[in-house]
Every structure is written in C-alpha cells, then in structure tokens.
Q: What sequence folds into this?
C-alpha cells in the first residue's frame, strides 16, 4: 500500500491542481493505473482561518503549513501505532520539507516497522538564491537529518540533484531525477478552446511569484524597454492570489510605478481562476521568466501546454529544462539580451501555428510521466532520463 501525504491545496498555488484529491496530477494517474493508495489529509480548519489562502509567507502559509503537517503526522503515527502500516508499505510525501517527519525513525525503531519513505524535494537552504537561504544555519541540520530518514528523494532535474548531493543531504544513489509531477491532460481540460484556435495578441505574461529571487524589477526593466520600442506590446503580471504579495515591499512599489507610467502596457491581474489564467496564456504570445531560482517552473509547463513561447534565462537549471536550446533563452539579467529576445519572438508570426505549437510539446510531455518514474523507483526498477538532450 502507498500512503500519500499531500501538500495542502491552495487555490493561489500550483498545489491546487497537483495535490487535489482524485483529480490531482499524481492521483488521477494512480487511479487510471489502478494503484492502491491511501491519502492522509491534514486538518485545514485548524491550520488556516481562511481555507485555500496564504496569510503570511512566500510559497506556503508560515504557520498554517506546520499545523497542517503536524495533523497529518498525528494521523500517520496513529496508523503506525495500530499496525495499519507495515514494513511492506510505502510512505510518500509531496514535500521533503514536512514538519514532523523527524518523528518517523523513532517510531519505526520502537515499533519495529520499516516502511520505505520517499519525498519530493523542491529546493534547499544551501541554494544561495532560495528564500530559505538566510535560515540555513538551522535548516541544514534538519535537511541532513531528513536525508538520513528517507529511503529516497525525488528531484526535478540534474542541477538540483547536484545541489542535494554536494550539500550533503544524501548520496547520489538516493537522489532520483524524475521530473516534476505534471498532467498536461488536466491543464487542457481547463482550457475552453484548442490552443491553435486562439488569435494571439502581442502579450507577454509573467506569472512567477513577485519575490526577489524571481527578479521582478528586472522584468519591469525589460517591459519598459520593450514598450518604448514597441508601444503596442502588453506585459501582464498574473496571480491567482487575492492580492499580489512580495517578500520585498520595494518590488510592489516598483510595479505600481511602472503601471502608472504605462497604464495600457503594464497590467496587473489578480485573483485569477485557473481557467481565466489559462485563457490569458492562450491569448498571449510569450510567457517570460526572469528568475535566479526556479528549478522547473510549473508556469513553463502550463504555458507550453497553452501554446505560449517560453522566454527564460540561460542560467542554472533552465538550460537543462529547455534542452540547451538557446532559441528559448537570453543572457541572465542582461537587459538588452532579454529585450531583444522578446521583440524578435513577438515579430515572428510563424511561432503560433498549430504545427509550431505542437513542436514544443516536448517541454511538458516529459513531465506527464514523472509519476511513473517515481513508482518505478519505489519498486527498484530502472527509469529513463527526462532530461535526455538528444531526445
């Protein structure tokens, strides 16, 4: 039996689709496959007074996250205590950073049960660009301890695998490159028209978090530079959150200034449903990323399904995600390089034909099978390399 410990489902984050019961990117594939599993949800009502909203924090709610995780661990430990979970079972965590996971080895030892345990690692504090990096003095101890607890660790790509191994979290034979769980079929179901039936506009969508590691001020510099040269271009900042947040208030100040300076060209769209966001992607020509830290952007996968042309920095994990194809990338934090890339792509009408859009499907299709690679690892079976450059 597989015991699944999902992330809490926030409508303003990718977990709304990834971790949703039965329809989530993992579960819908498990159900089709006929996998026997048991989902252990946390107590949402006690974790957050407003369900599906982040009250404070960057990626997940600062306190609600821990309360949700601890309630999951209470249920999991009770199942271990009553003998429902045995040594032949598997426990899978959506997130390596799961408060309470450190209780497992003590329980395993005293109860003499040793189920396999796996977790997906999204980022780590040793990464100088991650927002957790300032907390690394205590986080590193936790990360290394969890690395000892787990049977295996899943990561999105080779770059993060190297960070995990070099950071001393776990040996390389314990860290498996599976790609990020994704389901393009579920994303397509939320779109009202096939992507090639949309009339594309000169829109550039930005949908990363408005936090400093995503370099939002640089994005605004690119937007203003392009607008000065192509006054009919629109740059749209999208968020599913009720209000755009940032870990640096000056990022929001910069945005408001740009919106006031170019009210018809730089536009903030907040509180979007996934359906509305996907519609914006289907009308846009480009989905742009300016981040320093973003190992496999879900926004990249979603926008490639929607038919957008991805524009990303040639930096760290991005080249491997885009198979080192420089047609999609610009020089990191180089204003002229980024602006020229955007303008050159906007001027090419051939990039949004049905044939061109379908030719870019490899960007997301590799991750549709991430769930299968994870199951193969759990069964000690060999897996393919989702980052094979020659494929």
A:
């Amino acid at each position: 039996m597989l015991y699944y410990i999902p992330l809490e489902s926030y409508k303003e984050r990718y977990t709304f689709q990834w971790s949703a019961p039965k329809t989530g990117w993992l579960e819908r594939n498990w159900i089709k496959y006929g996998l026997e599993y048991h989902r252990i949800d946390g107590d949402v009502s006690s974790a957050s007074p407003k369900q599906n909203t982040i009250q404070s924090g960057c990626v997940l709610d600062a306190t609600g996250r821990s309360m949700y995780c601890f309630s999951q661990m209470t249920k999991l430990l009770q199942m271990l205590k009553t003998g429902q979970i045995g040594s032949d079972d598997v426990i899978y965590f959506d997130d390596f950073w799961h408060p309470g996971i450190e209780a497992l080895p003590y329980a395993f030892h005293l109860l003499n049960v040793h189920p396999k345990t796996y977790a997906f690692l999204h980022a780590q504090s040793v990464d100088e660009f991650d927002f957790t990096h300032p907390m690394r003095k205590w986080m590193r101890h936790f990360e290394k301890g969890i690395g000892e607890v787990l049977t295996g660790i899943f990561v999105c790509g080779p770059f993060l695998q190297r960070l995990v191994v070099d950071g001393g979290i776990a040996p390389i034979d314990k860290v498996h490159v599976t790609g990020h769980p994704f389901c393009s079929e579920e994303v397509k179901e939320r779109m009202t028209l096939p992507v090639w039936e949309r009339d594309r506009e000169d829109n550039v969508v930005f949908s990363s978090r408005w936090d400093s590691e995503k370099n939002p001020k640089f994005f605004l510099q690119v937007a203003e530079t392009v607008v000065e040269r192509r006054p009919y271009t629109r740059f749209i900042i999208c968020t599913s959150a009720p209000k755009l947040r940032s870990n640096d208030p000056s990022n929001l100040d910069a945005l408001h200034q740009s919106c006031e300076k170019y009210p018809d060209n730089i536009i903030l769209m907040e509180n979007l449903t996934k359906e509305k966001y996907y519609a914006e992607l289907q009308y846009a020509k480009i989905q742009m990323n300016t981040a320093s830290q973003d190992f496999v952007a879900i926004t990249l996968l979603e926008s490639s399904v929607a038919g957008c042309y991805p524009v990303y920095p040639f930096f760290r994990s991005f080249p491997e995600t885009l198979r080192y194809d420089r047609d999609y990338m610009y020089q990191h934090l180089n204003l002229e390089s980024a602006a020229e890339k955007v303008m050159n792509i906007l001027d090419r009408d051939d990039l949004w034909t049905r044939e061109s859009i379908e030719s870019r499907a490899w960007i997301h299709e590799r991750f549709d099978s991430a769930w299968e690679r994870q199951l193969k690892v759990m069964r000690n079976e060999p897996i393919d390399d989702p980052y094979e450059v020659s494929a």
In short: The first helix runs from residue 15 to 18. The domain at 2-184+367-378 is CATH 3.40.50.2000 (Rossmann fold). The two ends are 34 Å apart (CA to CA). The chain has a mean pLDDT of 91.
